[in-house]
Amino acid sequence: MHELAVTESLLNTACDYAIKNNAQRVISLNIVIGDLSSIIGDSVQFYWDIISENTICENSTLVFNKLPAKFICQSCGVEFEINGELLPCPSCGGMNLRTIQGDEFLLESIEIEKGLNKNE
Amino acid sequence: MSKKTIPIVKKIMSANDQIAEENQELLDSKNILTINVMASPGSGKTSLILRTIENLSNQFNIAVIEGDTAPVTLDSDKISNLNIPVIQINTGGECHLDALMVRSGLEKLDLSGIDLLIIENVGNLICPAAFRLGEHFSIVVASIPEGDDKPYKYPNIYRGIQSLVLNKTDLLPYVDFNIEYFKNGIEALNPGAAFFPLSCKTGDGFARWTDWLKIRIQEMK
Fold it and tell me: Which of A44, B100, B155, B218 is at a distance of 20 to 30 A from A80, taking alpha carbons?
């Protein structure tokens, strides 16, 4: 449910960059979501369609690049991904782990449509 | 018309994070240790806070910010009955506190002379974790009846914490709960996190928690 606040933050950032770059409209947004970030893409999409109305981002597409949770075993050095459930190291069975990927929640880039610029 | 890709690479939560940083700077300047207490409803956040106040209020000045989804003052009344300054933030149905709400709470509190500020987040484990508030330590209160497999089943919600309080250890004789197994999961997700099995009801294990907190408060001075 916190996705509404999160989506508002996403909209503000995207609009800022779009306006600074003289966009006529925003075509798409490339978003990185790590599996451990507690953000649900579908929920962001739901709010996006509502709150982006009447902004430069209206009718834009959200492209989610999902990153799996990745750990390194600090006992044997093996790196491994998990899908949902936290599991011991697949190589040595140890639980001395450190997260190396999965917390991300980033706006990586936006694709914009520019108007004709006299200086170009 | 031309299409163009604008690289951004910006944390989407950065607006909240920035205010959280400003909150922390304010709290640092006044040497106030601030903890953000998160848990699912019924784990014992309020019990932990009340007992902590009872144990430490003769040595330290404590204040509390109470996050609630509705204007129900049950929890904040219990705290003000102990003569502790408390500000209630009604999130208006929102599932979490954010840095801006905490800033408004800080503006209403008289911070002079306060040693420890406890922020009781909304009873919910998933949403509050995404919002930094300006705290020095975030603490999750888990409890024995919830089961020892929860860090394994929900690794995303036990992430990014510096301390875990495992409450209701007085129920251990009645529930199958392997403390070591639970602790290993927490440690894997949060290397070096402090771990406090205790009972707010009997007080068992509570001194280890308050001793740890006392050291953190003194480190702020």
Answer: A44
